[in-house]
Amino acid sequence: MNRPTRGLTSSRPESQLILQSALLAATLLTAAHIAAAQAQGPPGVSAHKPSTVCFPPAWDGLVPGVSRDAHARRLYGEGFFTRSGGHGGTRYFLARDNSYTVAVELGVDEILETVTISAGVDLPNGAATSRAASGLLPANPEVYRVHLGFTKDRVRQSLGTPSSESTADHWVYATDYRQTDCFPDAGATFTFANGRLIRMSVFLSD
Known about the structure:
Blueprint: H1 13-40, H2 69-76, E1 80-82, E2 90-95, E3 100-106, E4 112-119, H3 129-132, E5 133-134, E6 142-143, E7 146-147, H4 152-159, E8 170-174, E9 186-193, E10 196-204
Parallel strand pairs: 2-5
Antiparallel strand pairs: 1-2, 2-3, 3-4, 4-10, 6-7, 8-9, 9-10
């Protein structure tokens, strides 16, 4: 987490504006927490506990809770839309080489709730790959410097120990704004098969 990467930035000006706004909110929140902690004396917990993430829940140019469906379509094309999933449906985008699929779940007012990146073709039954195909997706997607295909050890090296809600092949990370100086309500999950990462999601925690 030493420098901005595709998981948190985009070359597109509109994407940068949205992400900069989210990062500014995180910075202001962190500053407020640090100031409060200094006024009260040494904190009782570390600023970045294991199983937490300290970034906004963002991927490429999409920020759950901020970005809308129209923004996703401007970035990646129309994709394939279905009313299933989320509160307002799901829009799918498939990498041109079929190496991975992005599923964007929509909520109220078409605001993004969750962004999921899955290895290979992961579309609903009956969906034509040609309709979901997008030549505008990044070549090597990542979330918090974590890439599809990573081993569990490499994910742990990047993010630390997953939370107690995790299972052997489904790891959960989330910020806890009550106990850390991290961005509030961010969540991320990482799913493995045969020891390799096959799916990762970012979302707003409850």
